[in-house]
Amino acid sequence: MITTTIIGTGNIARHLYRVFSQSDEITVSQVAGRNSAALKYFGETATLLENGTALVKSDIYFLAISDDHIFEVSELVNDSKGVVVHTSGSVPMQVLSNHTNYGVFYPLQTFSKQRSINFKEVPICIEANTEKNRSLLSQLAMSVSDQHYYIDSEQRKSIHLAAVFANNFTNHLYHIAHSICAEQQVPFSILSPLILETAAKVSEAAPYEMQTGPAKRGDLKTQERHLSLLEGQLEKDIYTLLSNAITKTHQNNQP
Amino acid sequence: MITTTIIGTGNIARHLYRVFSQSDEITVSQVAGRNSAALKYFGETATLLENGTALVKSDIYFLAISDDHIFEVSELVNDSKGVVVHTSGSVPMQVLSNHTNYGVFYPLQTFSKQRSINFKEVPICIEANTEKNRSLLSQLAMSVSDQHYYIDSEQRKSIHLAAVFANNFTNHLYHIAHSICAEQQVPFSILSPLILETAAKVSEAAPYEMQTGPAKRGDLKTQERHLSLLEGQLEKDIYTLLSNAITKTHQNNQP
After folding, report:
1. Which 3-state string (H, E, C) describes chain A?
2. How confident is the model at residue A149 (pLDDT cuts 50, 70, 90)?
3. Does residue A249 belong to the interface with chain B, where contact is any CB pair within 8 Å?
4. Closest CA to B96 of B125, B58, B61, B131
5. What's the confidence (pLDDT) of residue B28?
6. A143 and A170 share one domain
């Protein structure tokens, strides 16, 4: 049995709590946080974090908190045996090097309160300061997910950046598409099958191979018509920049 | 039984041919094209289009060809009874107004040779010059898909533009994410669950509500770190422009 303490009460804390509680191999000893309203979600394990609050001894301490507070909050853990890990994509592991045992447990997924996630399908990126700690984090990862990877801090920074493109920026493009549909009283749901197919395609072949559209074809006439339909300058700029990027990327590959 | 002629041999022609052939209510009388190699896919219905080739009389003629050739090729159809339709997102219906009966049958999906599509889930955008023709196109749409919409040429132009954002541009962001992973020897497949979840989310709530990430939070420190990781100027420009767009869109909604 692996015992865990979760520090934090946000989306990642909630998902870890839920999935750890469901596992026969993991116990959540304590969830500690400063937001008493948010703590209610965590039932009996919830502990309000105040000055001098003692944390329950655990095998692993999860810092499921915002990047800027990881160092400071990690100092609350006073346990030379337990492994102190953060769950951030962009913070180096070494921020925890004041501890004897430390590492990273980064679930690569977008978590929201509204949607439940099948955690078995979430890739877990693991890093640790010793072989033994890495092995413990692996064991934990395997009990909740079907895939985990050993990823060092440099790689993780890049994965986080790639995720900003694949998730944050993509979502903003969906938002622009949504606005365009709304202006013409077209339901956004008409685009759902296209959006899902676009996402599914790249599991099978490199996105480079899957590129289509006026910019790929070098079809300037359609691009001009599209630009004239867009009203906002920001949307025009995005259209132009991304079209130019696609044309440049595929310029030696025109039909 | 609805009889059809397909003119063209590309991806859309192939998908229409396949799905029409599988329907008990539709007959493909002929597939006509200029590319004899591509015509082989269409078996006995294939007809090489040369000067003076006569088209078989049909209820509906599909011009599944590139936008620029729709007007010219439509002149080959010499039938005042059959409905002449194109399958393009961006070309107005009126390009076919030399005919007595005409319309548009635009399947809103990204078609590639490699992947089979469940046509039942493809939204069909229909437009026609008369009620009767619209009703015939509806009947055809219903026999191959679970959803069709009456969409006029103005709306269709906007849908096509929205699709460029949701498909073409999104795919290019996937390509950038792919390159970032490749540089760090990380398999791109690590991002697949994130990409699929990002796409699935917006079927349930507006993309605006689903936005996350450093630009949404106004987290400039992370944005600077990300910019320093990017090597290409074009990628830096895309990062900056999309981050600014997200920040601006959500500026009254910071946490």
Report:
1. CEEEEEECCCHHHHHHHHHHHHCCCEEEEEEEECCHHHHHHHHHHEEECCCCCCCCCCCEEEECCCHHHHHHHHCCCCCCCCEEEECCCCCCHHHHCCCCCEEEEEECCCCCCCCCCCHHHCCEEEEECCHHHHHHHHHHHHHHCCCEEECCHHHHHHHHHHHHHHHHHHHHHHHHHHHHHHHCCCCHHHHHHHHHHHHHHCCCCCHHHHCCCHHHHCCHHHHHHHHHHCCCHHHHHHHHHHHHHHHHHCHHHCC
2. very high
3. yes
4. B61
5. 97
6. no
Range of the domain at A36: 2-151
Name the pairing type of β-strands A46-48 and A26-33. Answer: parallel
- Return all residues near A191 (Cβ < 8 A) that are at least 6 apart: A177, A181, B108, B159, B162, B163, B166
Residue of A nearest to B198 (CA): A167
Using CB atoms and an 8 Å cut-off, which of residues 116-145 of chain B contact chain A? 117, 121-123, 125
pLDDT at A253: 57
pTM of the model: 0.94
How far apart are the C-alpha atoms of B5 and B13, rounded to whole Å?
10
The CATH number assigned to the domain holding B166 equals 1.10.1040.20
**Low-confidence residues in chain B, pLDDT < 70:** 253-255
Report the distance separating Cα A157 and Cα A147, nearest Å: 19
The CATH number of the domain holding residue A97 is 3.40.50.720
Spatial contact of A169 and B210, defined as CB atoms under 8 Å apart: no
Is residue A129 domain-shared with residue A186, that is, in the same domain? no
Q: Report A:166-205 residues touching B (Cβ under 8 A).
A: 166-178, 180-181, 183-186, 188-205
Total domain count, chain A: 2
Please indicate whether, in this complex, the C-beta atoms of A199 and B198 are within 8 angstroms of each other. yes
Chain B residues with beta carbon closer than 8 angstroms to that of A115:
197, 201, 204
The predicted-structure confidence for A5-21, as pLDDT tens digits, reads as follows 999 999 999 999 999 99
Is the domain of A29 the same as that of A139?
A: yes
Give A252 to chain B, closest Cα distance, Å: 16
Q: How do residues B202-223 score in pLDDT, each as one tens digit?
A: 999 999 999 999 999 999 999 9
**B114 and B181 belong to one structural domain:** no
User: Which of A151, A168, A183 to mutate: most B Cβ within 10 Å?
Assistant: A168
Last residue of a domain, one of B151, B183, B214: B151
Same structural domain for residues A127 and A112? yes
Are B56 and B147 in the same domain? yes
Residue B116: per-residue pLDDT = 84
- Same domain, yes or no, for A79 and A200? no
Decide if B190 and A226 are in contact by the 8 Å CB cutoff: no
**B143 and B160 share a domain?**
no
